[in-house]
């Protein structure tokens, strides 16, 4: 009985250690705005409408994804303000079968000359349809994040970038410093009373 308990505890500890842990706190997706260079739509002869907003709806299925054809197509996120970004998580369509090639860029202002590559020529694993983690070199202060696609290794759709979902993580805010406590003034000893005791009786 004791041995079984020990084995169970060891297994649980291993699961905790091996489980992927997000670096920082996830940024609320409702506060994020998104745009893209292009996307597949019925109006342009596509199989359906796959705008960039679908990458923020919490769904990982292919029907809810952003899709664009062509080398260098990008999707861009506005986090609302400059944040200390620590990690991105990206779920790719057919990510368990395809290896996607991407660049990840960051900017504080969104101006064209302000972009910095924080993950150059990154690739997905081709082994997971779930989120895949992309670190940003520890931390980068940015408001805008752009993911640029350079195709994938599929034979049928090699020039497409298909992203199902993206999540962003930032370093938690530092706790507010406590104001210094004011020292209490030292209390001085009370002087002894110099009054003489009254004598009993009159003169």
Give a written overview of the molecule.
By secondary structure, the chain is mostly beta strands. The protein has a single domain, classed as Jelly Rolls (Sandwich). It is built from 1 helix and 8 strands; from the N terminus they run αββββββββ. The chain has one helix at 2-18, and strands at residues 25-26, 33-36, 66-69, 74-92, 100-107, 116-123, 132-152, 160-170. Mean pLDDT is 84; it is low at 10-21 and 193-203.
Which helices and strands occur, and which strands form pairs?
Blueprint lengths: L1 H17 L6 E2 L6 E4 L29 E4 L4 E19 L7 E8 L8 E8 L8 E21 L7 E11 L33
Antiparallel strand pairs: 1-8, 2-4, 3-8, 4-7, 4-8, 5-6, 5-7
What is the H-and-E element order?
A: HEEEEEEEE
Largest sheet: 8 strands, antiparallel
* First-to-last CA distance: 98 Å
CATH class division: Mainly Beta
Content-based structural category: mainly beta
Q: How would you name the CATH homologous superfamily?
A: Galactose-binding domain-like
Task: State the CATH architecture.
Answer: Sandwich
Q: According to CATH, what is the topology?
A: Jelly Rolls
Number of domains: 1
Flag low-confidence runs: 10-21, 193-203
Keywords for this entry:
single chain, Jelly Rolls, 1 helix, mainly beta, 203 residues, 8-stranded antiparallel sheet, disordered C terminus
